[in-house]
Design goal:
heterodimer, A: 233 residues, mainly alpha, 8 helices, 78% helix, B: 168 residues, 64% helix, 0% strand, elongated
């Protein structure tokens, strides 16, 4: 899957086309929202970033389980790709949210439960990427980071459901029933675009991780000899 | 505008969209560079003015930098319509520093592309001369670099062809 470059190039191009089309309709065709005015157009990139961040980090969680279960470098590479893509999406959604917050809430940042749990999500998964840089043994690095991803994932459902569970300044999730039909199309297009681009980014990062892993570590002869003797014993 | 509607929203919208485009372009660009075998230290050291840069990375770098510059300045516009004087002052300082940094990176990108055409990097200032800079822009974007090594370093195209395994 990771060596066939054609399919994910097509996925990336389709994602880019969907994203550009969605942004175009969102910016120039869809009407301005009744109360928020033009600022609401930020939702066409903010909502897809948020939904895909949660989805991609869920995928990272599944890859982490796969990595622990199989010990395969491919699962570890895919987990790294999903984690890093999730961090990029989370950073982006926080930046977009802050830009939206200033004209609507009057502040760039508020320690609201949704914003705080999202920031924690960013710091947790960015921390896992930093942790990987400190562990030289690839097998230990894969195990430790997979465990860390599983532990950090506890925050992800909290980010999604906290607006329903707690009193929050942030509004709850919209659905096609609660949004005007003219706003649903650009939202669906940008959601698809972000999803396909995320897949492309995960695969690219996983390829890079696999390449690095192949080139970085050769078992020292002394350790190899000891392991062989242990196996014989 | 009807009463109760938030006014002056477009600068915020532009800033949000530009930041989105910038982050996606920068991250995918970094991944591409890393997959081509460019070491992480070298990716970080964008201000390096040694060596040569062929057309494709030059165009993608200039496009990314232009988007970054526009996003940075859109943030300044979004601050112009409201906020305290102190906030506007701090933002203006940040935007000024960010813009100067981006322009410096742009200049070094032009220097490395000039090297690829076997021209001295000191010619970067020609990009500031009206009319001539249009010609220079076309030259930098479309003219193929000198084949083989020149006085500024090895041919970047030959280098990438000699290391096909790094793409795997």
């Amino acid at each position: 899957m990771l060596t066939n470059t054609r399919w994910y190039t097509i996925v990336g191009i389709l994602g880019l086309l969907a994203l550009v089309a969605g942004c175009w309709i969102g910016l120039f065709v869809a009407p301005a929202e009744r109360h928020m005015g033009e600022v609401q157009r930020i939702m066409y990139v903010h909502v897809p970033s948020a939904k895909n961040a949660v989805l991609v980090l869920t995928v990272a969680f599944l890859f982490a389980i796969g990595s622990l279960a199989t010990g395969s470098p491919k699962w570890d590479a895919l987990m790294t790709g999903a984690t890093e893509t999730g961090v990029v999406l989370t950073g982006m959604l926080l930046a977009q949210g802050m830009i939206w917050g200033k004209p609507t809430w009057g502040v760039w940042w508020d320690w609201d439960v949704r914003l705080t749990t999202s920031l924690i999500m960013l710091l947790l998964f960015a921390g896992i990427l930093a942790l990987r840089a400190f562990i030289q043994d690839p097998e230990r690095r894969a195990t430790w980071s997979a465990v860390a991803v599983i532990v950090a994932y506890v925050d992800v459902p909290l980010v999604y459901f906290c607006v329903r569970w707690f009193r929050s300044l942030h509004q709850i999730q919209s659905s096609p029933e609660t949004v005007s039909a003219t706003m649903v199309l650009p939202l669906r297009l940008t959601l698809t675009g972000f999803l396909l681009i995320s897949v492309w980014l995960i695969v690219q990062r996983a390829r890079l991780e696999l390449g690095r892993r192949q080139s970085e570590w050769v078992e020292p002869p002394e350790r190899l000899r000891m392991r062989t003797e242990e196996a014989r014993a | 505008m009807p009463e109760g509607v938030i006014a002056g929203g477009w600068p915020y919208v532009v800033a949000a969209y530009l930041i989105t485009a910038l982050v996606l372009a920068a991250y995918s660009g970094l991944l591409k560079l890393a997959l081509r075998g460019v070491p992480a230290g070298e990716i970080g050291a964008l201000l390096v003015i040694r060596g040569r840069l062929n057309r494709a990375p030059f165009v993608s770098a200039m496009l990314s930098l232009t988007v970054m510059l526009a996003a940075w300045n859109a943030l300044l516009l979004s601050q112009g319509s409201g906020g305290s004087t102190g906030l506007i002052f701090v933002t203006t300082l940040l935007v000024g520093a960010g813009s100067l940094t981006l322009l410096a990176v742009m200049a070094t990108t032009i220097v490395r592309r000039l090297h690829d055409l076997d021209r001295p990097g000191t010619h970067w200032w020609l990009a500031l001369v009206p009319i001539y800079n249009l010609y220079l822009g076309i030259l930098l974007t479309f003219k193929k670099g000198t084949t083989g090594a020149n006085r500024y370093g090895p041919d970047p195209l030959l280098q990438s062809r000699e290391e096909p395994n790094r793409e795997q």
